[in-house]
Amino acid sequence: MFNEPLKCPRAVLFDMDGTLTQPLLEFPKIKAELGIGSGPILESIAQMEISQRQMAQTILMRHERLAAEHSTLNPGCMETLHWLQSNKISIAMITRNSQECASIILQKHRLAFEVVITREDGPFKPNPFGLAYACNRLAVGPGEAWMVGDGQYDIEAAAAAKVPSIWLSHGKDRYFLALPSKTIVDLHELLTLLKSAKGLQ
Ligand SMILES: [Mg+2]
Question: How far is the CA of 139 from the centre of ligand 1 (A)?
C-alpha cells in the first residue's frame, strides 16, 4: 500500500473537523475544561462516573455546537467534492463528532454525503468500524477507498481497516507514528492527487 502510486478510489471517506472544515475545535482548551489532562476526549469521558460523565458531555457538546455553527470549509473542499461527484466516486463522512453537529455542518454548507457516520453509530476512530461500515454501505472493498483526514485517529483507523490513507498535514510535521499512504498539505493537493490517480487508470 505504501510508496506505490495510489489507484483511483471508488469511494473517498472524509474526516470532518479539520479536514472538510477548518480546524475549529480547540482540543487543549476542551481537555482543560474537562480536567482530563492530555488523554483522548471521548475515551476519557467514557471512563467517568455517570454524574461526571453527563457534565462532561454537556461541556463537550457546547464546544462542538459552537464550532459547528461558526465552521468554515477548508479551501478546495467544494471543488474536490464536486469533482468526486461528477466522476461518480462515492463520498462518505466519518467523524468522532456528534450527529447533531454533523447535521449543523452539512446543512450550513449544503453538503451531502452518501454515508455519514458519527460517534452515535458505533465504535469511533481509531476503531476501524466506521470505515468498514462505510465501505460496506458503498459496496467497495477497503482497498478501493481512500480515507482522508487531518488526525492521528484517521490514519490509525485507516491502517486497521486496510484502507489507503491520505493525511492532511496543514503544513505541520507528523506528530504520530501511524504511517499514512500519502501526506498532502491541503484539499487542493488532494484534488491534484485524485486527478493524477484517475489519469493512471
Ligand atoms: Mg480531524
Answer: 25
Q: 68 alpha carbon to ligand 1 midpoint, in Å?
A: 13
Which amino acid is present at 97? N
Dist. CA 77–CA 51, nearest whole Å:
40
Whole-prediction pTM value? 0.92
Instruction: Tell me, yes or no, whether 78 and 165 share the same domain.
Output: yes
pLDDT at 201: 62
- Residue 37 CA to ligand 1 center (angstroms) comes to 20
CB contact burial 165-196 (16+ within 10 A = b; e otherwise): bbbbeeeeeeeeebebbbebebbebbbebbee
- Total structural domains in the chain? 2
- Backbone torsions φ then ψ of 148, nearest 5 degrees: -115, 120
Are 56 and 105 part of one and the same domain? no
